[in-house]
Write a structure and sequence with these properties.
about 260 residues; alpha/beta; Rossmann fold; Helicase, Ruva Protein, domain 3; 7-stranded mixed beta sheet; two-stranded antiparallel ribbon
């Protein structure tokens, strides 16, 4: 029976064979690696991935799709909302069956309506992750990889770049999906930094949120007041807009507050 895409799950199924091949080549799965696919859907990526890996763990919320996926002999199916998945516990379980692997690899065509919450959910558990390859709305990836002093540079840019090396690796047009989304898509590669700066993530998160809360105003009017309340007595140039401040400066400030 043909599966009808469900709007409430943000389902758009990848159907373009050439794009699928390019994504799998970009991921470059190797035999016996411990890999998790988020939202396998109709298994367009799942099948070529499992052929190279030998075994794959998938996370699927749609009950009907999960039933289908369980019929595959080389898949372990986690039927759950990905935002409720404990990736540390999942990694511990997976790595006992993949002794050659030290960490898990995560891939997926993320539902565009909850892609940012998924990215932050994984950021909280990044210590067990080797790398991440995701298909997302191109607009979101543009913000993820943006450089300072550009219109795309944002809170998302800072909160991910302090922890990952990221690159936009592939453009995916709407016609590659069924049904076609109303936006362009792309694939991002996210590799956790081997030696990230030590920082209180909650402090950095709050600081960056305040800084970008009114991005057209200079920081004296937003972040300046917050720093004053914190009793910060150090030096920081507040005569700039948030989009002009490099990631390293935000991190350094969070370390001092």
């Amino acid at each position: 029976m043909k599966h009808i895409a469900r709007k409430r799950f943000g389902q758009h199924f990848l159907t373009d064979g050439a794009i699928i091949g390019a994504i799998v080549d970009g991921i470059n799965p190797q035999p016996a690696q411990a890999m998790v696919e988020i939202g396998p859907g109709l298994a367009a990526l799942t099948q070529p991935l499992v052929e190279r890996l030998g075994h794959l763990t998938v996370i699927e919320l749609d009950r009907d799709l999960a039933v289908r996926l369980r019929e595959h002999p080389h898949l372990s199916v986690v039927e759950s909302d990905v935002l409720k998945v404990d990736f540390r516990a999942l990694a511990l379980q997976m790595l006992t069956h993949a002794p050659a692997a030290a960490k898990i690899r995560v891939v997926g065509n993320l539902p565009y309506n909850i892609s940012t919450p998924i990215l932050f959910h994984l950021l909280d558990q990044v210590d067990v992750i080797e790398d991440q390859h995701f298909m997302l709305q191109k607009e979101v990836i543009d913000r993820m990889v943006a450089k300072p002093a550009t219109s795309d540079y944002s809170r998302l840019s800072v909160m991910l770049q302090w922890r990952y090396d990221m690159a936009n690796v592939l453009f995916v047009p709407p016609e590659s999906f069924d049904p076609p989304p109303r936006v362009d898509s792309a694939v991002v590669r996210m590799v956790p930094l081997a030696a990230p700066p030590v920082v209180n993530v909650k402090t950095l998160e709050t600081l960056v949120q305040v800084a970008f809360s009114q991005r057209r105003k200079i920081l004296r009017n937003t972040l300046g007041k917050w720093l004053e309340e914190k009793g910060f007595a150090g030096q920081f140039d507040l005569q700039r807009r948030a989009e002009e401040v490099p990631v390293a400066e935000f991190v350094a400030l969070a370390q001092k507050v």
